[in-house]
Amino acid sequence: MLHKYFVYITTNKYRTTLYIGFTNNIQNRLSQHYFDSQNAKKSFTGKYGCIYLVYYETFDYPKLGIAREKELKKWRREKKNKLVSDFNPKWENLNNQIF
């Protein structure tokens, strides 16, 4: 059985900061980001409050997902914004829509 792997982008309340990550359990990872934002504040997502999922891609193989994550991290902010806007035009919080 293949696992699903995710490359995802979260943002903060004001959409001023983006975080790009990779995981095989997106619900758990989003919970960790939320916990860090409320408690730890030592991680990037905790410090900047990047708890709102606005973009994701799924992959069947981790190598492909990791390569995509690295690719997205190299992009300029404008290109990342366009990617999110094309996928999620209103930049709605998708945390409760992904399973």
From TrEMBL:
Alphabetized InterPro entries for the sequence: GIY-YIG_endonuc, GIY-YIG_endonuc_sf, UPF0213_domain
Boundaries of every GIY-YIG domain copy: 3-82
PROSITE patterns hit by this protein: GIY_YIG
Top-level lineage group: Bacteria
SMART domains: GIYc
Pfam families according to UniProt: GIY-YIG (PF01541)
CDD domains from the UniProt entry: GIY-YIG_unchar_3 (cd10448)
Family membership noted in the UniProt record: Belongs to the UPF0213 family.
Protein name: GIY-YIG nuclease family protein
Gene source species: Flavivirga rizhaonensis
